[in-house]
Design brief:
The chain is built from 12 helices and 7 strands. The protein is α/β, with parallel strands linked by helices. It has 2 domains: 73 residues, no CATH class; 227 residues, Rossmann fold (3-Layer(aba) Sandwich). Strands 3-2-1-4-5-7-6 form a 7-stranded mixed beta sheet, sandwiched between helices. Helix 3 packs across helix 5. The protein is globular. It starts with 5 loop residues before the first helix and ends with a strand. 39% of the residues are buried.
């Protein structure tokens, strides 16, 4: 497995494990396991279960139970919670007029291939690094007969200054149509300047009423005040060569958005996320409850 896509592979693994192992689901990504090869799935499972001493030094149990503990406590909460939040917000946006869905750093996101009926009339754009897109297309080709007609791949490198021209030169994209943008899992790896730059670009090119959904680490994430899970997540990302850079207070985030003409429309802290998206699962699994990731908030911002 190439190191550059390890985070995306582990996220897909977490969604796949949850969807195949749990009866009551926080989020059902039933295609996630098909994106991974059997070797990748088994390799990640083995690596994570053997890493139980890092995640929970006092754990005592079987390898299978160790894997369940690592996935439920460390790997799944973020990809499941933010996907549930994002797709709920997308559904609401489509109901009130959004016609385009832009998925930034799409990775192995499967929405376009399991899209519900309400998404049939929107155009979907998956933005990612050219190598990632090529890899995903190969995997998807083995999984589905044909690409959905409303899906467009846009090869961009967010570390290059020309990513916006690559996006807005895409003939299928209409800058006059209200758009819904997903920036999940991105804010951690961009400097504040670069993260703000993304919103400035979107504000310049998308019409009033367009919205952006994203997750972001709070101001304590990279300090000793962070929860133990957050500290371990930061260490894992660093070991994979994907160093986490930023953290924001609510007021800092509100200011950053306001400077690009975006208003906070929905904001969720970990407790609120757990209560809204994890409650049904937790009621069905009182011995193995899951909680939203500490020090991570979800936000929906709308261009005014």
């Amino acid at each position: 497995m190439e190191q550059k896509s390890m985070t995306a592979l582990v996220s897909a693994f977490a969604r796949a494990y949850h969807s195949t192992q749990k009866e009551i689901k926080i989020f059902d990504d039933y295609l996630a396991k098909e994106v991974l090869t059997r070797e990748e799935y088994e390799q990640i499972a083995s690596h994570m279960s053997k890493g139980i001493d890092f995640f929970n030094p006092s754990f005592d149990g079987t390898e299978g139970k160790a894997l369940q503990w690592v996935v439920d406590n460390q790997l799944s909460p973020s990809p499941l919670g933010r996907a549930a939040f994002s797709e709920k917000m997308l559904n609401n946006a489509v109901k009130i007029g959004a016609e385009q869905y832009l998925i930034f750093a799409a990775g192995y996101d499967t929405f376009a291939y399991r899209q519900p009926d309400w998404a049939a009339n929107i155009e979907i754009f998956e933005l990612d690094h050219p190598d990632m897109i090529a890899d995903k297309q190969k995997r998807i080709h083995d999984m589905v007969e044909q690409r959905p007609k409303n899906l467009h791949y846009v090869a961009v490198d967010f570390t290059e200054n020309n990513w916006q021209s690559r996006l807005f030169d895409c003939k299928a994209l209409d800058q006059n149509k209200i758009s819904f943008c997903s920036l999940l899992g991105i804010s951690y790896y961009l400097s504040e300047e670069n993260f703000k730059g993304v919103f400035q670009v979107l504000s310049e090119h998308l019409p009033k009423g367009s919205s952006v959904v994203f997750d972001y680490p709070d101001e304590n994430t990279h300090t000793k005040k962070a929860g133990e899970r957050a500290q371990k997540q930061t260490a894992m990302a660093g070991a994979a060569g994907e160093k986490m850079l930023s953290g924001y207070s609510y007021f800092e985030m509100e200011k950053l958005l306001s400077e690009s003409s975006f208003l906070v429309y929905e904001h969720m802290t970990p407790d609120k996320i757990t209560n809204q998206f994890f409650q049904r699962y937790n009621e069905a699994n009182p011995q193995h409850q899951m909680t939203a990731f500490d020090n991570v908030n979800y936000c929906l911002a709308v261009k005014r």
